[in-house]
Design goal:
458 residues, 22 helices, 2 domains, mainly alpha
Length: 458
C-alpha cells in the first residue's frame, strides 16, 4: 500500500484523451460493455461530480488493493521474497502509469483486482468463488478471457487436483460468451476502433505485434519513454511468421522445462498479452496499459534477488515513477509535448497538445506540420482553433476540408454547421445539423443545436 502511494503525485492531473467521453455518458449504463467499470464511473459522479482527481484517486486505490492481492496470491506459489519483488514491480513500475493515472484505463485496473482475488481464492481451494471473481473481472474488461488459459497451464505445471477442471470449464464458457459478445459489439458500435473497425487488417496487426511486444519488453527493463503511448511503423504481413518461433519453442521444450519457474511465468505473461496483441486487431497498435498484468508475471519470472539488488531496483523504479507522475501526468501539456518531441510525425500527440495550449500557440504548432494536412483530424483541430481565434471563415474552410476527406462522418458535418452558424448563415447551419443526425441519430451535439433553434428533430 505504501509503495502504491507514489501515484498520488499524479493526482491533480487533468482529463486525458477518452477521459472526456466520460463526461457525456448517460449513467448508469449497465447494458453497455464493461458494466462494472461504468458502474464505478457512475459512483464517482454521484459522490464527487466531474472532478478528475476523484476518478484518479479511485484508480489508485483499486490499484493498491490489486497489489495486496497480487502479493497474497503469488506468495502461495513463489514464497515471500519473490512474491514481494513481483508485487513491488507491479505496484510502482513506470510502465503502469497509463493504467493507473489514465482515468479511462480503469477497466484494466478493476479487471486486474478481481483476477488477483480470483487467483488467491483458487489457490485457497475456493474454486467456485474464483469463478465468481472471474465473472466480475470480465464485467470490468473483456481481456480477462486469458485467465482460464493461465489456470489450465498452472494446473498442468503443478499437477493440480481433478476437481479443478469443472470450474475451469465454466470459466472457458464465460470467456467464450464474452468474447463473442465483444466481437459483435465492436462490429456494430461506430468508432469502436476494434475488430473490423480497427482500420488495420487482422494479418497486418498480427504481423506488427512481435515488434510491439519488443517495445513492451524494452520498456519493462529500461523504462525510458517519457510520454504517452508510442505508435510504431506497421510491419509487412510476412512478419506474422515470427509467431512460429515462440510456438515452436513451446512445442520443442520438454515438460520439465516448462514447469521451471522462469519459463512458466514468462509464458504466463504472454498469455495475458494475447487478447490485445494477437488476432483481434485494435486501432492502437501499442498501449502500455496492456502490460498491466503481464508485468507482474514477468517480474515473477526473475530468480530470487539478494536484498541489496532488490532494494536498488525497487527504489529506481519508484523514483522514475514519482518523477513522471509529478512532472507529466499533473501537466497534460507537458505529457503531450514530450510525446510530440519523441514522435513528431504522429498526428495524435499534436492534436492532444493543441488542446492544452493557447489558440495562438496551437495555430503555430499546426501550421508548422503541413504533412498532416490531408488528415481529417488535423483539419478539424485547425477549424476548432480558428473558431477560438474568432476567425469563422477560416474555420469553415478547415471544416469543409475535413468533410471532403471524411464525408460520411457526422461530427464533420456538425462542425461545418457550427462554423456556418458563427458566420450568421443559420439556415445552412440547421441543414448541416439535420444531416449530421441523419448520419448518426445519436449525435448529441447536433441534437442539442437543433433543440436550441426550436426546430423539430428528425
Amino acid at each position: 500500500m505504501l509503495l502504491s502511494s507514489v501515484w498520488l503525485l499524479g493526482l491533480p492531473g487533468d482529463w486525458l484523451l477518452d477521459d472526456f467521453s466520460l463526461l457525456q455518458l448517460d449513467f448508469p449504463s449497465l447494458l453497455r460493455p464493461r458494466p462494472l467499470s461504468y458502474l464505478s464511473y457512475w459512483l464517482n459522479f454521484q459522490l464527487c461530480g466531474a472532478e478528475p482527481w476523484a476518478f484518479r484517486i479511485t484508480n489508485i486505490l483499486l490499484h493498491a488493493l490489486g497489489v495486496q492481492f497480487c502479493y497474497r496470491a503469488l506468495r502461495r506459489l513463489l514464497g515471500d521474497h519473490r512474491a514481494f519483488f513481483a508485487a513491488a514491480v507491479f505496484a510502482v513500475h513506470p510502465l503502469q502509469a497509463e493504467a493507473v493515472l489514465y482515468i479511462f484505463s480503469r477497466p484494466v485496473v478493476l479487471m486486474g483486482l478481481f483476477l488477483w482475488i480470483a487467483l488467491d481464492r483458487w489457490l485457497a481451494g475456493k474454486y467456485w468463488v474464483a469463478v465468481g471473481c472471474f465473472a466480475l473481472a470480465l464485467a470490468a474488461k473483456e481481456e480477462a478471457v486469458a485467465f482460464p488459459l493461465f489456470l489450465a497451464a498452472l494446473r498442468y505445471s503443478t499437477a493440480g487436483v481433478k476437481r479443478q477442471w469443472k470450474p475451469i470449464a465454466a470459466m472457458f464458457l464465460l470467456a467464450l460468451a464474452v468474447g463473442a459478445g465483444v466481437t459483435v459489439a465492436t462490429a456494430k458500435l461506430a468508432g469502436s476502433g476494434a475488430g473490423t473497425q480497427a482500420g488495420i487488417s487482422t494479418l497486418t496487426y498480427l504481423a506488427t505485434q512481435p515488434k510491439v511486444i519488443g517495445i513492451y519488453l524494452q520498456q519493462a527493463v529500461f523504462p525510458m519513454f517519457l510520454g504517452f503511448t508510442l505508435q510504431p511503423e506497421v510491419w509487412p504481413d510476412s512478419a506474422a511468421l515470427l509467431w512460429l518461433l515462440p510456438i515452436a519453442g513451446v512445442l520443442l521444450a520438454g515438460t520439465e522445462t516448462l514447469r521451471k519457474g522462469w519459463a512458466f511465468w514468462a509464458l504466463s505473461a504472454g498469455l495475458f498479452l494475447l487478447p490485445g496483441s494477437s488476432v483481434f486487431p485494435l486501432s492502437d497498435l501499442v498501449a502500455f496499459r496492456r502490460m498491466y498484468l503481464p508485468l507482474a508475471f514477468l517480474a515473477a519470472a526473475v530468480p530470487q534477488l539478494r536484498a541489496p539488488w532488490l532494494v536498488i531496483l525497487i527504489v529506481a523504479f519508484t523514483s522514475v515513477t514519482a518523477e513522471r507522475s509529478y512532472s507529466l501526468y499533473r501537466e497534460p501539456a507537458a505529457l503531450w509535448r514530450a510525446t510530440l518531441d519523441l514522435q513528431p510525425q504522429e498526428l495524435r500527440p499534436l492534436l492532444q497538445y493543441c488542446k492544452y495550449i493557447t489558440a495562438d500557440a496551437a495555430l503555430q504548432e499546426l501550421l508548422q506540420r503541413p504533412m498532416h494536412a490531408q488528415k481529417a483530424g488535423y483539419q478539424t483541430e485547425l477549424g476548432r482553433v480558428f473558431l477560438d481565434l474568432q476567425r469563422p471563415a477560416d474555420a469553415l474552410s478547415a471544416f469543409g476540408r475535413a468533410l471532403a476527406i471524411e464525408p460520411d462522418k457526422a461530427s464533420n458535418v456538425y462542425n461545418r454547421g457550427v462554423a456556418l452558424s458563427a458566420l450568421g448563415q443559420n439556415e445552412a447551419a440547421i441543414l448541416d445539423f439535420k444531416r449530421a443526425l441523419t448520419i448518426d441519430p445519436t449525435h448529441q451535439p447536433a441534437r442539442e443545436a437543433l433543440t436550441k433553434s426550436r426546430l423539430p428533430i428528425p
